[in-house]
Write a structure and sequence with these properties.
The protein is an alpha+beta fold. It is built from 16 helices and 15 strands. The radius of gyration is 23 Å and the shape is globular.
Amino acid sequence: MATFAKSGGEPVGSVPGPALALEGGGLRALCVGAALTAGLARVASPNDEGVTLAASGLYRKFASLASVSGGSWFAASLIYSPRFLSLVEDMAADPSFASAQWGRRWTTPWLAVTSEDSPFIKVFADLAKLIGDVGLAQDILLAGYFWQKGFTWTNWTLTLLETTAGIDMSCSLGSPVQEWARGKVWLACHSLAAPATKAATPVYIYKHELPATAIRQTIDGSPGLAQYIPASYSFALGSDQSAAAVPYVARSAIPNDARWVYKGARVGGCLFWSCPNRYTAKSAKVGDFDNLTSGASSLPVVSCAAASSAAVGDLIFKAGVSSLVDDVSGSLAVWQGSGAGPAAFSEAEGLVAGLTSPALVSQKSVDQLAAASVNAAVDAGFTDTTGIAFAVAAGSTEIVAYLNYSTPDHLAHLFTGSYEIDGVTYDENPSPVFEQSASDIVSAYAAFTQLALTPNAKLLTTINVGTLTATTVSNALWGLPAGVTV
């Protein structure tokens, strides 16, 4: 069992029981999670009519759920939404109408947001339909909606969860949960963008091309193990506690005396040529990220799921793209800081959104970012797409994983060495979690039992089932000791 300890050796928290890992994969991951849950609940249920997830006992054995990206959209919906749970249970009760139920009660409400688009946006969508690309047409409509409502990843996630599951910003990790989830720990997994001070690619909090203006961020006092650090918002569901169940990050990945560093630069101010004005500030010590752990119960579910799923959040490392996004007051990462509860996100997001022009980049604005310890949370897939490593780091040694990609490359990436899948060679993970050969894992995955599909399956191609046994390596990024059998 992996444990976490304070500097004096006092245990902080771990979840040693079996875990359910929900792989990322956007809307596909959400749909796979819902479909597997419905199908397995029906098989496990003692009564074909009136199937309920709690009565089926399907997830009774699990002590925790580790969810990634779209898997977090599914987890949030199944945990907190009676409406979404009812949909999944009705699909389980009558599989022959599951597809129709999903389309009417999930897909239609989600796509209905595009009815608010302007005629200009709809003309482009109609043109896309004429050339036969219905998917592109829907993407244009969705982009138009978010252009009007606010082009941020948090808004995207809010709209998805609100329209399909009735979850809004008032729902927190400590809100009432569905019966099946009570007592389990949810790990809303994500990655913390934390480039070391001397990193070649800092985080761009703000970027503007002409005049050349930027605010860059790094972290000082970190061992610089990776550009992305695995992190999780955690909570014992349905409990009256306020604190997180496990630490936010491994102490060995980000020591508690590390500090965020902010550097601003703006060209201008000279009579005959441009002179750069430079501004620098440091945050307080990050500590244990106390605001995200001591008051975890009040963190908004939408913000946690948004951080977990910010799949294009890596663009904050690219100056050109950051400039384009900033020009439309957008945000593709989830900004968080030292505020309490909802303010952990809203305060940081407000400071970043307030940087609307080069003239606002000053020592004052850099100091404000430092005072609030503003930092970026992005998709968990930048550290582990499967959720398995997150579950192991939290203490589990028995994991059931719902994987939804057609190849096992994300699974193999957790193991040692390079590997090949379908003629494509994948580089080795510089920070593997398990000692077994990645190539051997690919071979073992190929030998998994393949289940027979129903004849009328339209989109489903395969269901493979198998068991692997792995042994951890010593890994400071994840805070793992060597020799743990999983």
